[in-house]
Amino acid sequence: MQRIDPDLFLRQMAPFRFVDEAAFDGDDGIIRASYRYTGDEAFFTGHFPGEPIVPGVILIESMAQSCRAWLNWQIGRKAEGFIASIERAKLTRPVRPGDRVDMEARPLSVLEADTTSSRFCRFSCVSRCGGEEVAKVSVTLYQSI
Amino acid sequence: MHVSEAESARLIEGLSQAVPFRFVDRVCYLDAARVVTELYERGMPLRFADVDGEDTYMVLEYAAQSSGLILRNRKKAGSRGLIASFRGVQRKSHGPLRWPLRLESRLVGERWTLFEFDFEVYGGAELALVGSIGIVIGI
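Predict the joint structure of the above. Result:
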């Protein structure tokens, strides 16, 4: 298991970083990452007042950041990039303050763009909370290299 | 029907989401199956935003909140809509988003408490993002 330091490989910083730790298991080819929602995150004030729930789009962003950390780790620096597409995402259970979300992501394919300065990579990701699935997404990230 | 500024403000005030996680600035058109909205600006402290400016998550939440306006009269008092799914979301522009954003969402399917919408988001005159969203509501 090779540790991926989010400080070194993610451009996103607090309060918009949703990866506490990440690692890549070369044996099964899976990226494993986690994030604990403390309850202090600013978005809980508005989502929803009096009944805080982690926004589904933040769960998707968190999985995308896990994948992005791996992509950047591969090239050894923080590269620019964005979510190019979400083929499919399912949000199955609310996540609340105090919950720790464990993520697994599998890189499926890397497609070099028409220039050598960028590439696209497709991932299949799942998030669990207490062992129970809360979200999954098939996402393609663009990375400027 | 086209929505006046006063009615738009009332509709936005009625959203379940509040600052800093409210992502609709103006409701331009609204009927039982179609909504057009605008989002004028990003940035803390009023809006929870990515310092990197990538903003895809924000556009997805903007689509969810706008689409949810169509369901406002179908929900039980005090209940909320939650995102159940996304499908076929594609970023059409590779650069930073051009502000303001304008969104059109159409109700294309419903089954029990699950409602499906197709949406398009424009940044200026440029198509920025398209996709489909599923929202489940408490009734």
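Residues 56-70 of chain B form the longest helix (15 residues).
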